[in-house]
Write a structure and sequence with these properties.
With 633 residues, the protein is an alpha+beta fold. The protein has four domains: 3-45 and 255-391, no CATH class; 58-244, no CATH class; 393-404 and 416-459, no CATH class; 465-477 and 491-625, no CATH class. It is 43% helix and 22% strand. The chain is built from 18 helices and 19 strands. The protein has helices spanning 3-16, 18-44, 47-55, 69-74, 195-198, 219-232, 244-252, 259-287, 289-297, 302-343, 352-378, 382-390, 398-405, 412-419, 425-459, 492-505, 561-567, 606-609; strands at residues 61-65, 81-99, 110-120, 132-136, 144-148, 161-164, 172-180, 188-190, 206-213, 238-243, 465-469, 509-522, 525-534, 545-548, 556-560, 574-579, 582-592, 601-605, 620-625. The strands form two sheets. Strands 11, 12, 13, 14, 15, 16, 17, 18 and 19 form a nine-stranded mixed beta sheet that branches. Strand 6 (161-164) and strand 7 form a beta hairpin. The termini are far apart. Mean pLDDT is 75; it is low at 474-489.
């Protein structure tokens, strides 16, 4: 095959059909950009956690136990355990500290009272959960503490004094450093000897053990590993065990709900692009069929004809792929920067293999489509190609023309137009499929918007209610009961009476209920537990239920999915929560819809939750409005 005549013919075809070349290039550009963005987000949505977990030798199971140090150390030799660290003494404390605002926000550091899981470790390194110091140094003596950094910017500065309020004498600890733990095995670390002084009287002697297993890639495998640990320890000694899969879900949760939609749009765009390219290429081949006959009459072989038309499609497709990869990377910058901020991993970018694989796959699809269509034209004789270029083949569409010709109520031009698609059945099918996928994309996009509006509606409870805050009330997790600069506030009880009187006086008030919120630590799980307590009937507040029903009495509670996952419970179970010296046994009667994050949450009456958190106090009133009431007013 002589290359020069083929190239010359392809160049003439490109110059004579600029619009077709531009259309092919733009279609491939858009498809490549969308696919690059979709695959880049899909890969980066999991890569940050996986890479950090591997680098820090994250703990696949973080166990809390009352067993002796010797019994815990012996579990490191269990079958399936590939690495272990500990035992480390552990306790839970309540401490007051000054927390600085996040970057970009002005204002002084504010006092905050929090519950912290404190673990005694002599050094940050180890075979499991290799901690990374982000500032300062590791604790080397009594009175020093290293805090977990949350990666969101706000935190406690090195040198800050912590006052431990949960033990007699309220000892002080100085923050000497901050560190990250990929599996959040604790919120603070001290030297091992310090734990005894921080452990409140009457609390059990707890110890933490960190494990990596040969098989821990699925929830079933992790559960089997935990069951082996439970069997190796005395009955009831394993207080709690946190799976690394739960932590990963919390880390990837903010972006995970979007990934399926992004991938779905990418797939739809890919299919539509292939169909459109096939349609455009087939149109180019049909429009150039007469020219194919001319080329064949000049001595072009079928292979040369096919190569000529492949080049005509490949050149704009290649340029579209290159521009599409660049556009996809540029579009990914703002989205991946937000993802990196969520994970706290610095910077993210589209992987190199994605930049290579997407255009190669796109070129392959375009080339295959063009090849199949060009092969048919290349097999025609010169006379047949010239004749076919003037009109469709006589066997195509005649039945449709005859059938529609009998419809005397329709003008003949209309029946000819209706029968026209049957003359080119392949192009008709491709066009129809492209339209179908276009409708699917529009329907999918509109449905996604409506679904997100519904989710936002459910997350914000109902639109017919407002929240009224009590000025002197604590914020969740702060533990600060009023106080601070400014004029003295009335007592909390006096403010509640004033708020209730004002609500009753409003003509638009349909009903109201006091709400108390707090975050506490509970034994067996390193993350905080969010408490939401209501002082009366709150079934009208609009929580969407996944399973079960709204709580109706003392001792009953509703929880979110994260609570069920981390505790291994389900709706209908009875569960005992332990926080320090406080215990609460509740019956789980419902699962609420709460996709905002992976933190466990429990919702119940304030009188029920007070047994677990005696300081729980109303922070706001949820107010249901009568129909027609202006919420802003």
């Amino acid at each position: 095959m002589k290359a020069y005549p083929v190239v010359r013919a392809a160049r003439g075809g490109l110059s004579g059909r600029c619009v077709q070349a531009v259309v092919i290039g733009l279609v491939v550009l858009v498809c490549t950009a969308a696919s690059t963005l979709a695959f880049g987000l899909l890969v980066d949505s999991n890569a940050p956690f996986d890479h950090a977990f591997a680098a820090q030798h994250g703990s696949e199971v973080t166990a809390t136990s009352t067993a002796s140090a010797a019994r815990l150390a012996a579990t490191a030799r269990l079958p399936g355990v590939t690495a272990a660290a500990g035992p480390f003494p552990e306790t839970t404390v309540t401490a007051t500290m000054l927390v600085s605002p996040p970057p970009g926000q002005s204002g002084p550091s504010l006092p905050s009272q929090q519950q912290l899981t404190v673990v005694g470790r002599a050094s940050p390194g180890g075979p499991v959960d290799d901690l990374t110091l982000t500032s300062g140094h590791w604790a080397t003596g009594p009175g020093q503490v290293v805090l977990l950094t949350d990666g969101q910017g706000a935190g406690v500065a090195v040198g800050t004094q912590l006052t431990v309020n949960s033990v007699p004498g309220s000892p002080h600890l100085t923050v000497v450093g901050t560190a990250t733990s990929i599996t959040h095995s604790a919120q603070a670390w001290v030297v091992p000897a310090e734990i005894a002084a921080l452990r409140a009287r009457g609390t059990p002697d707890l110890a933490q053990m960190l494990y990596r297993f040969a098989s821990a890639g699925t929830a079933a495998q992790v559960n089997a590993d935990i069951a082996a640990l439970r069997a190796a320890l005395p009955h009831g000694a394993l207080i709690g065990a946190q799976s690394w899969l739960t932590v990963k879900l919390q880390a990837t949760g903010p972006i995970a709900p979007w990934v399926p939609f992004i991938v779905a749009f990418g797939v739809i765009g890919l299919v539509m692009s292939v169909l459109i390219v096939a349609n455009v290429v087939s149109g180019a081949v049909v429009a150039g069929t007469r020219r194919i006959g001319v080329l064949k009459s000049l001595g072009f072989s079928p292979g040369q004809v096919v190569a000529s038309y492949l080049i005509q499609v490949a050149v704009p497709a290649f340029l579209g792929c290159v521009a599409g990869v660049v556009a996809g990377n540029l579009l990914s910058v703002p989205l991946l920067s937000q993802t990196a901020q969520v994970y706290g991993v610095g910077a993210l970018a589209v992987p190199v293999w994605v930049d290579v694989a997407v255009p190669v796959a796109m070129l392959g699809l375009v080339g295959l489509t063009a090849l199949l269509l060009a092969l048919r034209a290349g097999r025609m004789s010169a006379v047949q190609a010239i004749a076919t270029g003037r009109a469709p083949r006589p066997t195509h569409g005649y039945a449709a023309h005859r059938l529609l010709g009998r419809a005397h109520l329709l003008p003949r031009p209309v029946t000819i137009g209706l029968a026209g698609p049957f003359s080119r059945p392949s192009r008709t099918v491709i066009t129809f499929a492209a339209i179908v996928f276009g409708v699917i994309a529009v329907t999918f996009g509109a449905g996604l918007g409506a679904s997100l509006d519904r989710v936002d509606h459910d997350l914000n409870l109902t639109a017919e209610q407002v929240q009224v805050s009590i000025p002197g009330s604590p914020s969740p997790g702060s533990g600060v009961k009023g106080g601070g600069p400014g004029p003295a506030l009335p007592s909390l009880a006096a403010q509640e009476r004033a708020v209730v009187a004002a609500l009753r006086a409003q003509p638009g008030t349909a009903h109201y209920v006091a709400e108390a919120d707090d975050d506490i630590n509970f034994t067996g799980v390193a993350d905080h537990l969010s408490l939401t307590g209501f002082g009366g009937d709150a079934s009208w507040t609009g929580y969407a239920m996944i399973a079960g029903h709204w709580y109706s009495g003392t001792g009953e509670a509703d929880v979110n999915t994260a609570f069920l996952s981390q505790t291994g419970t389900r709706v209908g179970n009875t569960y005992t929560l332990t926080s320090g010296t406080s215990h609460l046994t509740v019956r789980i009667v419902g699962e609420v819809f709460d996709p905002r994050g992976g933190r466990p949450e429990i919702i119940a009456g304030t009188s029920t939750l007070a047994a677990l958190d005696p300081g729980l106090a109303p922070g706001q009133y949820d107010v249901g409005l009568k129909p027609g009431t202006n919420a802003q007013a």
